[in-house]
Design brief:
Rossmann fold, 7 helices, binds flavin mononucleotide
């Protein structure tokens, strides 16, 4: 009788220990999932790491770059042109093939997987500083997603968007988007930039 009772107690103890161990294991697994959940989500979002580079003569493209930077919370730098551009030097660049003279890009482009260029349009063509930047850095830019945010007085016709994309393709670059913003409508830049960003996979972990 005593032996029967003892083995019954042993079985109950064993069952109780088993249940405790199972509960502890389940709790640990849940805690680990909760801890790793947000990190995984952040890793997925922060996998997009864009750099903004800009050239601006009169400030509009700079404003576009700063608006983008505010909304994306990413790194930004200038396209450091050494030229003091006049109307005639722009004509020379846009029609006669003159190139920009610019300082070497200070950023390590390999640290970014997307590059956004903000720059003006002159005579319906992308300005020389942006073109020269792509040419000088084409090896480092290869394989990255490029997005161009251009400023101009009017609207950029579809044919000119295609021409810019073809120019990039000629350098072996992947221009995924060309978006334009009209000068004179600066107060609309934040809204326009926000709308454009909704259609691109550029949102970062630091995005606001
Ligand atoms: C020489 C020159 C040519 C221009 N050509 C055009 C043009 O073909 N179409 C257009 O809509 N705006 C044109 N613009 C307006 C520029 O695109 C506008 O001033 C530019 O977006 C200003 O950029 P920024 O303020 O960043 O320097 C031209 C401006 C200059 C100075």
């Amino acid at each position: 009788m005593k032996t029967k009772r003892k083995s019954y107690l042993t079985a109950v103890c064993a069952l109780f220990s088993f249940l405790c161990a199972a509960a502890a294991l389940a709790g640990a697994a849940m805690a680990q999932q909760q801890a790793s959940g947000p990190d995984n989500a952040t890793a997925a979002v922060s996998a997009v790491k864009p750099l903004i580079v800009w050239y601006s003569r009169a400030g509009h493209s700079q404003l576009v770059a700063e608006t983008l930077q505010k909304q994306l919370g990413c790194d930004m730098d200038t396209i450091a042109s050494k030229k003091d551009r006049s109307f005639f030097s722009i004509v020379n660049e846009q029609f006669l093939g003159a190139e920009d003279d610019q300082e070497k890009c200070k950023r390590d482009l390999s640290a970014y997987n997307a590059v956004i260029i903000a720059a003006p349009i002159y005579f319906m063509k992308l300005c020389a500083p942006a073109r020269t930047f792509m040419e000088l850095n084409r090896k480092a830019l290869k394989g990255k997603d490029l997005y161009l945010f251009v400023t101009l007085g009017g609207k950029l016709p579809e044919g000119k968007v295609t021409a810019i994309k073809e120019y990039g393709a000629g350098l072996g670059l992947n221009i995924k988007g060309v978006f334009f913003l009209q000068i004179g409508k600066q107060e609309e830049f934040p809204q326009r930039v926000s709308e454009i960003l909704k259609t691109t996979p550029l949102q970062t972990a630091g995005a606001k």
